Structures
1.
Amino acid sequence: MAIQRKPKAAAQAEFIQGAPDAAADGGTYNKGLAKGNKRQITITIAPDLLRRVDETAARTGQARAAIISMAIYHALEGNVFQ
């Protein structure tokens, strides 16, 4: 096996973007603050709704953010807004 030179950054990016599981937009959604592979956002929520979210999180042993993410996911996948 021959030793090869390290590919240039552009060639590396092109190779990665050509992968079958690469994001269609290159994974460059820039809204919110990057936090690992997620984005941090700020929302305003009614106190009573927040209390219910916190109660659900405590009851299920999930984080508040996980409960909110799951609720949004299920609402969007269940076509609640159509």
2.
Amino acid sequence: MSKLGFGFIELGTVTPLAQVGNPKPRLFRLPQDEALINRMGFNNAGVEALVNALKKGKPNHIIIGGNIGKNKNTPNEEATKDYLTSFRALFPYVDYFAVNISSPNTPNLRALQEKEPLTELLSVLQQENQQNPRPKPILLKIAPDLSLQQVDDILDIIRQVKLDGIIATNTTITRDHLNTSVKL
């Protein structure tokens, strides 16, 4: 991708352990709507496989992001451990982090966007980040289906933990105003 002129590549979403993702097919094209529906489910080989690939080197002129998430079977109460595991493993190899709490394809993941769990997660990651001599930017990937109150809460948390930015947005769960009859 760097040879095609991309300015950065974001890898992931990667989880601590490998997981197969959701059953296939996972990607549906809606030509009449010029849209896609995805149900990937964080299919990946796990963070150690990604680290091994990154150890082989990267072109100096490309920015690499590490998009991190929790494993599907990890309860939300233990999600911070999953994010921290991937954060620590990828830290030497990526230029920034995207914290994915907004995939509609991982059961209950979006509950991490609520005030208490999000504050805990981002505080722990930022604390870990700031212990390094050269902290990396941390961005939060949010859902497009948030209420205005949720957005306000997230903005407060981002200011509180001094996060570097937001990736807006992940995949919507709404199917309003489509021309295609969706029964997928």
